[in-house]
Structure formats: C-alpha cells, structure tokens
TrEMBL record:
Residues 132-142 have a biased composition (Basic residues). Residues 1-38, 94-142 are annotated as: Disordered. Residues 1-16 have a biased composition (Polar residues). This is (Atlantic silverside) hypothetical protein.
Amino acid sequence: MSGKNSKSRYTIQTQLRPGLQAATAASGEPSAPAEVASTHANLDTTALKLELLAALRKDIADIFKKQLQATLEDALSTIKLDLQAVKTELASDKAATDATMSKLKEPHSCLEVRISPRPVPRNRRGPPPDRRARHCHTCSSL
C-alpha cells in the first residue's frame, strides 16, 4: 500500500487515500462502529453509482441504436425509390430500342432500289436520271 507517512513525536501514522481506506477497513478488523457505517455507506454509494452508470450506458446505447436504425431506414427507402426509377427507365429504353431494331430489320424498298442493277441509259442528251432512291415509309419514320 502506498501512503504518506507522517511522523509525530512518538508514533508513525499512515494516511491512505480514501479508496484505499475503504478497502483496508473492509478487509481488516473494524475498530469502531462509526467506521463500519461509513464504509458500508461508501460501498452502497459506489454500488449505486455503478448501477446508475450501467443503466445510463444501456439507455444511451438504445437511443443511438434507434437513431441509427431510423437514419438507415430513410436512406434505404430513398435508395429503393431511386432503384425503382432506374429500373423503369431501363425498361422504357429497352422497349424503345426494341422498336427501333424491329423497324431496322424490316425490308426497306429504298435500299432495294439502290442495290438493284440499273441499265445504263444510251442517250445522254437529256438530264441525268434521278439516281436518288425514294424513301419508303419505314425510313421516313426513323
């Protein structure tokens, strides 16, 4: 035990810290009923403090837990709404792409006219023949 020694004229007295005095008094023989009562009161207040501290820790942990859950629920609902909007937009874009692809897969009469061989005109006196193809109804809608 660490303590301060003070020498008086004929005796040496050891002065312990308050926490150590309570432990010493509890482990040793009590010298007076007043010391027993004060030690018992110190132990009661210490136990009460520890009990209150544990209850406060539990309450604070519960409050933090509830606030965190509420925040995460809000964030999760926002993410769900954003994800649903992206899914809807993706489905709309896919439908538009499929419609465009189906139009492109249809036969185009304007392309068939260009590809088909044309006879070369023998008479070059008139204006040149119109080699531009007329666009079909499919091409005009694209």
